[in-house]
Design goal:
The complex is a heterodimer of chains A (72) and B (329). Chain A is an alpha+beta fold and 72 residues long. Chain A contains 1 helix and 5 strands, in the order αβββββ. Chain A has one domain. In chain A, strands 1-2-4-3 form a 4-stranded mixed sheet, covered by helices on one side. In chain A, a hairpin with a 2-residue loop joins strand 3 and strand 4. In chain B, the strands form 5 sheets. Chain B has an 8-stranded antiparallel sheet. Chain B has a 6-stranded antiparallel barrel with strand order 15-16-19-22-21-20. A 3-stranded mixed sheet of chain B has the order 1-2-3. Helix content of chain B is 16%, strand content 36%. Chain B is elongated, with a radius of gyration of 26 Å. Chain B has 5 helices and 23 strands. Classes of the chains: A alpha+beta (72), B alpha+beta (329). The interface between A and B is medium-sized, with 26 and 44 residues.
């Protein structure tokens, strides 16, 4: 069964502490409920030892590169 | 050929092209039209450059604007000069790129058109708002209207922005009146600022170009998967999907350093297009019912399911609350 928005919110703070190299930790959706989204500037070095869930809430990682103000 | 040999061949070929242009001018002076009207209207010019032949080899690039020249003696002469190492292509007449309306002077000033502080390049008009005293205001980002905290209240705001040719005072539409300072050491929630409009400057607070009319401010919370759109100075009307909400620790690069934002909305472009690019900062993001839901301020070129990068935006409610304004719709 999927996770609620409240469960994802509760897990978000832990994710923020856990993934110190993040450039964004938020809430997204997977097929059956809410999940955590962890944005990274660069790919994870040690993928095998990275948790795929926090308190049961799934974690999605995405490499988003550098984020800049949208100005020419 | 190596690069130096191509450059030498290019210089020699210039003489052939110069003669061709002189002959064309002479023929036109005499009113000679020994070709169809269509062909006669095409310029008798050949552009020369350097093309890559193989990984370590170059050839003379020859670009022809008139089909009649493709089999002419001039191309034969250039082929001979370059010992056959030429890359000849018919390119036709090149048209001046049409500048889209949102990068031009807009009368009335519209949502999505180019705007900026006189010392900033360009951003977008997000929306029109009013304060408690009913003053009409232009809404955009701090980094568009207030130059990342560097501006002084009262500074001129130009439409279009300087990057699009806006000049002070000819294109001044108003003055910076308030900005929420960007905090480069703590946490931010918004990147926003407002400017007053000068007397006589007209505005259209509803027109969202191809999207229709702005219909209000969204009340229900934004959710993942919501379909959104915007009108902006660089990419015009684009459509997207919300990919994340309540995004904290979004680290954004500014000229004055990195700033961190909490509570942000993340969006990816629909199909194969990005949702935003540089210059779209300040755009108002609306939902399917044209209700305002966020103010665009940042983005990257990496990520998203289409690989075109992700866009970040402040929730509208946070912006309106911070500036103590209401949107005019």
């Amino acid at each position: 069964m999927g996770h609620t928005l409240e469960e994802a919110r509760a897990a978000k703070d832990k994710a923020r502490q856990l993934f110190t190299s993040n450039v964004g930790v938020g809430i997204t959706k997977v097929d059956d409920g809410y999940a955590l989204k962890v944005n990274l500037r660069n790919p994870l070095v040690d993928k095998e030892n990275v948790p795929t869930a926090i308190d049961g809430v799934p974690v999605q990682f995405e490499v988003v590169g550098e984020i800049r103000k949208q100005q020419p | 050929m190596n690069l130096d040999s191509v450059r030498n061949a290019k210089n020699e070929a210039r003489a052939v092209v110069s003669q061709l242009v002189r002959n064309d001018v002479f023929r036109r002076k005499l009113g000679i039209r020994a070709q169809s009207i269509d062909m006669a209207s095409q310029p008798s010019t050949i552009a020369l450059g350097v093309a890559r032949a193989t990984a370590g080899d170059y050839s003379l690039a020859v670009r022809v604007q008139n089909r009649l020249l493709m089999e002419g003696e001039e191309i034969a002469a250039i082929r001979h000069l370059a010992k056959g190492e030429v890359d000849v292509k018919y390119i036709g007449q090149i048209q001046k790129r049409q500048v889209p309306w949102y990068q031009q002077k807009c009368t009335p000033v519209r949502i999505g058109c180019s705007v900026a502080h006189s010392k900033v390049t360009a951003g977008s008009v997000g929306a029109f708002a009013q304060s408690a005293s009913q003053t009409i205001l232009v809404l955009s980002n701090n980094h568009v209207l207030a130059d990342e905290n560097n501006a002084t209240l009262g500074d001129p705001i130009l439409q279009p922005g300087p990057y699009d040719g806006g000049q002070n005072p000819a294109d001044k539409i108003g003055s910076l009146t308030q900005f929420i300072p960007l905090n480069f050491t703590g946490v931010n929630t918004v990147d926003c600022a407002i400017a007053t409009l000068d007397g006589g400057i007209t505005f259209d607070s509803k027109n969202l170009d191809l999207l229709g009319q702005l219909s209000g401010v969204r009340t229900p919370p934004v959710d993942i998967g919501d379909t959104v759109a915007k009108v902006g100075r660089t990419t015009g009307v684009t459509h997207g999907t919300v990919t994340a909400i309540e995004l904290d620790n979004v680290t954004v690069g500014y000229d004055n350093g990195n700033a961190t934002f909490d509570g942000q909305i993340e969006i990816e472009g629909t199909g194969t297009l990005p949702f935003s690019r540089g210059g779209d900062s300040g755009s108002l993001i609306v939902d399917q019912d044209n209700l305002a839901l966020a103010l665009l301020f940042a983005g990257g070129a990496t990520g998203g399911s289409n690989g075109q990068g992700l866009t970040y935006a402040n929730p509208t409610a946070a912006v309106l609350q911070a500036l103590a304004i209401t949107l005019i719709v």
